[in-house]
């Protein structure tokens, strides 16, 4: 493929950008009474409204041509047919097989992977049922009441986000905990809440060599054995999910307690696999299957909807429009549901680890910006903090507003309409970011309060809102396992589409591997009695300062 920025489609977008870069959405809405009609997609109970974006019919047409020029449809086929598109690791990216509820054959190296996936699901079902119904007992015969997932990055963020989001579906007498940071504070705080007799540790690590996870796993085992005393009891309290069976066995986990992961499942795409065991235990297998089914619905939508009616495709193209043409380099994820508080962190990994790359598939430096800096916070909390910058900052932050129509929570006899207030805030924000507030409106508003014209003139400019700040609105019926599966999978495909257009490999993560590598070089220097000269002067002095003050 030709360098994307050199294609005629890219050049047409550049020209078009010059034409519309100063257009205001307010006028676009005034000019076209059907703007919403023409700029939203309904998919099951999902409404994706992208009308509050700085796009015209022409923009959409040109962006869709860009997707075609990048051969998107073919790449989508490569992804779904198990080709080794993660070429730097010689791996397929087959997370879609993990949630393939149709059970159609998906071949890798000429072999259907579905029997493997189904066997693993059967095992997840068996263990999660046993833990939930008390058949799985601790070493003193007690039922499990705490599950502690020890993992980091892709082996933590997904299950942690989902268990929080789907708490209303969770079993009341089991508490899920997540330990990721090697900072002892993380594990200590969780252990304070647990009893060795009733705790099941899930050691989640694809490689089973990640320093943070292994350190926490060894400490958890020490904590357990300090009470249980006998190694043979480890079997009742430790299970592992890994692609590295040997390392798991060496750690002392019973072979029956090992769940398999394959190299074709990337860490950040792994919560659909046995990495989701904590989810299945907490919300039950039926709900976990609902979650998978939601993702499968999104997969079908992505593969079968025409590009212009395809939510992940349109999300991706709008993102490209902002990042590569307007130079708006961040994306805010703003869920108006407290249960989705961890969604921004989850998507931050999914997006930034997948598309934070400067080398293209052609092994050359890319000529355009790639993945956005993704961040966010649950609404309405963000409104009382960083939304100031969204409304009046010099940088423009395209934002995704996400909200269910019905909340899973209702206060008894709720006379105060919590959810309606939340909804009103969501709508008010997207509307005002788009519309802004003009000088005349501000003057009218202030005239009653400030009688002195001189003061009025001075203060007006501070209260003006330029508007024209873009947002997507994603509204769905309620936060069910199926809806959550759908939502996350749509973002996964949005990320994929952008990776295709930027011609990068969205499925490796050499930056993460680099972090793992360098920490191992520093550790012995910190541990030795000698002062270090191994690195640059800043690094040496930081290490020596810590040692001198320990
Ligand atoms: C995800 C990344 C990374 C990974 C963690 C944990 O895509 O590869 O976040 O999940 O580094 O790795 P392990 O599961 O091997 O411990």
What does this protein look like?
The structure is a single chain. By secondary structure, this protein is of the alpha/beta class. Helix content is 48%, strand content 11%. It has 22 helices and 13 strands. It has helices at 8-20, 25-31, 35-38, 57-69, 72-80, 95-98, 114-133, 157-165, 184-192, 211-228, 245-251, 277-283, 285-304, 311-326, 343-355, 387-392, 418-435, 439-447, 453-460, 481-502, 510-527, 537-548; strands at residues 40-43, 46-49, 107-108, 111-112, 146-150, 175-179, 199-204, 238-242, 258-260, 330-335, 373-376, 399-406, 471-478. The chain has a 6-stranded mixed beta sheet, sandwiched between helices. Strands 6-5-7-8-9 form a 5-stranded parallel beta sheet, with helices on both faces. The protein has a two-stranded antiparallel sheet with strand order 3-4. Helix 10 (211-228) links the parallel strand 7 (199-204) and strand 8. Helix 15 runs parallel beside helix 20 (481-502). The longest helix has 22 residues, at 481-502. It is globular, with a radius of gyration of 26 Å. The chain starts with 7 loop residues before the first helix and ends with a helix. It binds glucose-6-phosphate.
